Amino acid sequence: MSYRNKTYIAFDGDNDMHYYRLMTAWKANDGFSLNFHNAHDLNTARDSSQEESIKRQLRERFANSKMLIVLIGENTRYLTKFVKWELEVALKLGLPIVGVNLNGSRKIDDKCPPTIKNELVIYVPFKHNIIEFALDNWPLEFSRLRNEGKSGDYFYNQHIYTRLGL
Fold first, then answer.
1. Strand, coil or helix: what is 130?
2. Given the DSSP bridges, would you call strands 6-10 and 153-155 parallel, antiparallel or unpaired?
3. Which member of 2, 15, 52, 108 has the greatest number of CB atoms within 10 A?
4. What is the pLDDT of residues 85-131, one digit of tens each?
5. How confident is the model at residue 2 (pLDDT cuts 50, 70, 90)?
6. Following DSSP, what letter does each residue of 4-73 receive, concatenated?
7. SS3 for 166?
8. In what helix (H) or strand (E) does residue 147 lie, and over which residues does it extend?
9. What are the Cα distances from residue 127, in Å, to 30, 117, 166?
10. Are 83 and 99 contacting, i.e. CB atoms less than 8 angstroms apart?
11. How many other C-beta atoms can be found within 10 angstroms of the C-beta atom of residue 79?
C-alpha cells in the first residue's frame, strides 16, 4: 500500500481554474505557510480525450491522497462527469473532504454538490488561513467524528475565524 500524503483538489476546470492556480501560488510563495501536496502534479492522462483514460489516472492520484478539497463555485454542483465521480471516490475511500466555498460562505449553501450533502464534510470560505487550518485540523477531527458515527455538514465557529484574523 502506498503512503498517502497528498491533497487531491477537485474543481470546475472550465470556470474555477484561477482559484486552483491561486492555491498553488500560495503554496509556492515563501510568505505563506499553506502546505499541501497537489495530487494533480503526480501524472497526466496519456489520452485526455478518453473519459476512462482520465479516470484511470485520477484513480492513481487518489491512491496517494490523504484528503480532498473541493472548490465549490457557481457550476460545481452541476458537474456530473468528473467532479461528481471524484467526490464519490473520495467518499468511498473514506477521505476527509473540505468544501471550499468560492462565494465566501462559511457553511454549506445551495452551491454544494448534491453528492456531498449530508456527508461528513467541513465547509470554509476561499481564504488562505482557514483553508490551511482545515488542512491541518480536519483529518483528525474527521476521524474522531466518523468513529463516533457522526455525519452531516460541519463548519468552524467564529472563534476560529477571529483567532486566524478573519
1. helix
2. unpaired
3. 108
4. 999 999 999 999 999 999 999 999 999 999 999 999 999 999 999 99
5. very low
6. --EEEEE--TTT-HHHHHHHHHHHH-TT------BGGGS---SSTT-HHHHHHHHHHHHHTEEEEEEEE-
7. coil
8. helix 128-147
9. 17, 22, 8
10. no
11. 21
Q: How many residues does the chain have?
A: 166
Q: What is the grid cell recorded at 126?
A: 476561499
Q: Which long-range contacts (CB under 8 A, 24 or more apart) does 17-24 make?
A: 19/71, 19/73, 19/102, 19/126, 20/71, 23/131
d(CA 88, CA 93): 9
Amino acid letter at 121?
Answer: V
